[in-house]
């Protein structure tokens, strides 16, 4: 099913993220596990950045949207912290498994909150044409962010020298979205 509006695109992402998390958990070699984890980091960095740039600002303006948005942003911040911790760990470490399971539960809960609290508000307060147009802005991030961002030098706008790949990917995704918004 092809997404015909930004909510459809988000639902597709959520399904893909769930599959990617299963792939990390079921990988049988450490190379496969590491590769699956890096793909997941990239996907989550782009997805959450796109939601933060494209849909959360609209949800904030909807009735009761402020509280919903605040909670979603807190969950996204928390998720990024756990991802950044996981990035520093060896995927074969038993602690990685424990932390990853926490991340998986948090990500599933977060996606459910968005589907139940955010999406109905967007549908009710934003017109259909705009929700359709925003699909390409939401997808723009995916096309421009580099696949091998973990090899790129840290270049956070805040000048944070310890910025990891997660931050670097999110920065590039944000730039791509902002430029797509202007068109
Ligand atoms: Fe999110
Ligand atoms: Fe999401």
Describe this protein with a few key phrases:
single chain; 183 residues; mainly alpha; 6 helices; 78% helix; globular; binds fe (ii) ion
The total tally of domains equals 1
Helix vs. strand class: mainly alpha
- Biggest pleated-sheet summary: none
What share of the residues lie within helices? Answer: over 70%
- Mean pLDDT across all residues, rounded? 89
Reading the helices and strands in chain order gives HHHHHH
In DSSP terms (H or I, runs of 4 or more residues), the helix count works out at 6
What is the CA-CA span between the terminal residues?
Answer: 27 Å
Write the layout of secondary structure elements.
Elements: H1 6-26, H2 30-61, H3 65-87, H4 94-125, H5 128-144, H6 165-181
Helix pairs in contact: 1-2, 1-4, 1-5, 2-3, 2-4, 2-5, 2-6, 3-4, 5-6
This protein binds fe (ii) ion (2 copies).
One fe (ii) ion binds at residues 10, 14, 47, 51, 111, 114.
What's this model, at a glance?
The chain is mainly α and 183 residues long. Helix content is 78%, strand content 0%. Mean pLDDT is 89; it is low at 149-162.
Summarize the structure in words.
With 183 residues, this protein is mainly alpha-helical. It has one domain (6-181). It contains 6 helices and no strands. It has helices at residues 6-26, 30-61, 65-87, 94-125, 128-144, 165-181. α1 packs antiparallel against α2 and α2 (30-61) crosses α6 (165-181). The longest helix is centred in the N-terminal third of the chain and has 32 residues, at 30-61. It is globular, with a radius of gyration of 16 Å. It starts with 5 loop residues before the first helix and ends with a helix. The model is unreliable at 149-162 (pLDDT under 50). The structure holds fe (ii) ion (2 copies). The site of one fe (ii) ion has 6 residues, from α1, α2 and α4.
